[in-house]
Amino acid sequence: MILNGKLELENKIKKSLAVALAKLASEKGLELPADFVMEMEVPKDTSFGDLSTNTAMKLAKAFRMNPRALAEELLASAGDIPYVDESSVAGPGFINFKVSHRFLEEELTEILAKKEDYGTLILDEPKSVNVEFVSANPTGPLHIGNARGGAIGDVIANIFRKAGWNVSKEFYLNDAGNQVVKFGESLYARFMQIDDPDYPMPENAYLGDDIVRQARAFRELNPGCEKWEKGQLIDKLCSWALQSNIDNMHAVLSRYGIDYDLWFRESSLHEQGLINDAIAMLREHDAVYEKDGAVWFRATDFDCEKDEVLIRSNGIPTYYAADIAYHLNKLVTRGFDQSVNVWGADHHGHVHRLKMALKACGLDPGRLDIILMQLVHLVRGNESVRLSKRRGDAVTLDELLSEVPVDAVRYIFNTSTPNSHMEFDLDLAVKQSNDNPVFYVQYAHARICSILRNIPYTDAKADYSLLTDKTENALMMKMTDFSQEVMKALAEYDPSKITKYAYDLASMLHSFYNVCRVKNDDPALQNARLDLVTACGCVLRSALKILGVTAPNEM
RNA sequence: GUGCCAGUAGCUCAGGGGAUAGAGCAACGGCCUUCUAAGCCGUGUGUCGGAGGUUCGAUUCCUCUCUGGCGCACCA
């Protein structure tokens, strides 16, 4: 893997220390603890230095020394460390490093050369990932609850791409099964109610207005259809309404900045017999049995609480069976190295048993990762808003986007980790969309563009050694963090790392702007600062691109 | 009953064994004859839900407990 930025620097420093440590250990006839991993971090108070390690404190016991003394010996043994100007022992035994300005100068050159590709990781062996998200039932419009999953999933996919993976974004359409039957019955009832207002709704019907509208629209589009035979009418009505919902989901997601590589239909699994194939595969591994007329998966053999039905006694496969077939299709047939799904936390019970079904088929369950996202608690002022598609009282994504700018919505949903519960106040979102932090970040970018419009480069050679103000150093240092933040966001499946990074970088640009003027009597300094803001613009654009947020040239 | 997620400033949230616990919003005071003031600089705020334990050191890890959200169907 090709690293760049501070990640690489940290590895260099760690390497120097590791050599020194090994030397020290052998001199003393000691062995390092097997589980020891050297850590490098940025000190909370940067006046201590640019980087810091707790190595001496961690190893004090093994070396039977006090941490500070060990730290001193370690530094003495390490001698000169590349790109480190000063190293010192502080506090209880931290070793602090001051990074040389040359590192920042070289990185600045690197950013200008690579532009938006700076921070992109290149894997030794290219790997592919399938990121599946939203995957809402096509029985109605997308609502705000789906918006969080959309924002998270899209950004996770972009993070994978930045981290060097081949990425495919996918939407799984549940266009089969019980809820589609209910959907059809609800449509039929609404259709019948056009002539007979007393026609009863089925149990657990979909009660949204959209169903009423669709029934009426279908009748207008198909003159004479009220005379069709009931089964045929429900079929046509249902598939027409499903397709219209799917088209609408396409449209609103596209408006939301999400374009999928594939919309995968659950019905295709049934049509192509893939569910039977999946069950056959489980059967080959002796993980299936029959009881009470149903086909069961021996889930209890795989650390699950109970066995699971794959095919009901009425012959219809369960959602679970279809999901197993779907994931075998991703990992075996299509051969993705990794499958990552964003699910609402209400599905968490399904995670383990799906992984175990894959394990039962002989696959490594680690190839499937599920990001569980806590559900959005939607409020309007003090009032709780329900998100039930069945009840039809959800606020749609379309409505949300007509009130709050796309950039603001995507940013908001990526400011906290998927794991945290989130309260989304509609009134507040509309009212506060003006002081949404996204504008702060975008403003930094617009500001850079404005500077570059107004101040021309001169012929003088830029002299980066003149970029010595602490705001300049902080800005450069932050830019070198980019690839590391991408890796952290990936490792933790946490897009909020990227929003926070973009915000911090913007903040440093603003601070720099207020302290240092780009326009300067010294042309070597002016050109250096032009390069600095150009580079910052590149990194900001890359970060915003990952977030799927626009980087405006002016505001 | 049992499993998962969370509880940090007035509000929304970061941090996740280490050096004085951080941002934004809200409040107050400064900074535009000079590259965008949607900005910058400064001021205040905390029983890190509670109780034990492990450790040189716990807001962070472990156990218990309280509160809130969500699961535990031949629904999806």
Note down, in words, how this protein is organized.
This protein has 555 residues and is of the alpha/beta class. It folds into 4 domains: 6-99, Gyrase A, domain 2 (2-Layer Sandwich), CATH 3.30.1360; 128-173 and 256-373, HUPs (Rossmann fold), CATH 3.40.50; 178-248, no CATH class; 436-547, Isoleucyl-tRNA Synthetase, Domain 1 (Orthogonal Bundle), CATH 1.10.730.10. Helix content is 51%, strand content 13%. Strands 6-5-4-10-11 form a 5-stranded parallel sheet, sandwiched between helices. Strands 1-3-2 form a 3-stranded antiparallel sheet. The chain has a 3-stranded antiparallel sheet with strand order 7-8-9. Strand 4 (128-132), helix 5 and strand 5 form a beta-alpha-beta unit. The longest helix is centred in the middle third of the chain and has 26 residues, at 230-255. The protein binds one RNA strand of 76 nucleotides through helix 2, helix 6, strand 9, helix 11 and helix 12.
Strand order of the largest sheet: 6-5-4-10-11
Distance N to C terminus: 38 Å
Proportion of residues in helical segments: 40-55%
Beta-strand percent range:
5-15%
Examine the secondary-structure arrangement and name the CATH architecture of the largest domain: 3-Layer(aba) Sandwich
User: Biggest sheet, open or closed, and with what strands and sense?
Assistant: 5 strands, parallel
Identify low-pLDDT runs: none
Mind telling me the CATH class of the largest domain? Alpha Beta
Alpha-carbon Rg, integer: 29 Å
Can you count the helices?
Answer: 20
Shape: globular
Beta strand count: 14
Mean pLDDT: 91
